[in-house]
Amino acid sequence: MEAETENLRELITRARVVLWDFDGPVCRLFAGHSADRVARELVEWLEGRGLHGLVTETERESLDPHIVLRAVDRRHPGSDLVAELEERLTQEELRAATSAMPTAYADPLIRTWKAVGSRLAIATNNSPRVVREYLAGRGLISCFTPHIYGRTQDLQLLKPDPHCLNRALSAMGAAPAAGLMIGDTPSDFHAARQAEVPFIGYARNERKEKILREAGATTVVGSLELLLRVVRSLRSHA
Could you tell me where the DSSP H helices lie in the chain? Predict the structure, then answer.
């Protein structure tokens, strides 16, 4: 435990720029609004247009809206169909944002990290409109703006592609080694690794931790309270 705390302290002390994934580390976006149902409705919408074949059985069974969206984009890149599907997902995410559950300790951690002089950015596969809506509702928008980098029209650039991380680093004039990514999925970890940004995994349960560690993440926490403690200690030593 002591070695883990020391490792966290080292990663956090070095970080000048902290890149946050949104759904997971900041909040559970679909806590009161099932992502499974959203994925099923996207598939049903496609089927209603006679486009059943655009999504394989495996993609359909993933019950992940982003997998459905990417699958259609791979087969019809940049099409009006993809744009309409993406907008439908954005609308569902906006609805979900009203009942999203803040991740324990995320709000004070964000505010404290900002207060000690670190610069914060969001690097997510969710719509930036949704992120802004949620952060504004929590009084956190000023901790991040203008550095909110989310899903664009080019869906091939979603994580694990490091595009949104690189956009954040470039806009903030930060070297990858001065950054730190907080994420909760293998795609976050792989994007950070490709961008050469240090990574701390957040896993709210053992299953998520196992998945992150199997992907290669070596620093994984089960609660953001550990990070908050370290950041607060930096503040007291400042």
Answer: 2-14, 35-48, 57-61, 65-75, 80-97, 106-115, 128-138, 141-144, 163-172, 186-195, 206-215, 225-237
* Cα distance between residue 138 and residue 29, in whole Å: 13
Whole-structure pTM value: 0.93
HSE-CB for 186 with a 13 A CA cutoff: 9
Work out whether strand 179-183 and strand 220-221 pair parallel, antiparallel, or are unpaired.
unpaired
Tens digit of each residue's pLDDT (9 = 90 or more) over 123-148 = 999 999 999 999 999 999 999 999 99
State phi, psi for 222 to the nearest 5 degrees. -95, -10
pLDDT, tens only, 196-226: 999 999 999 999 999 999 999 999 999 999 9
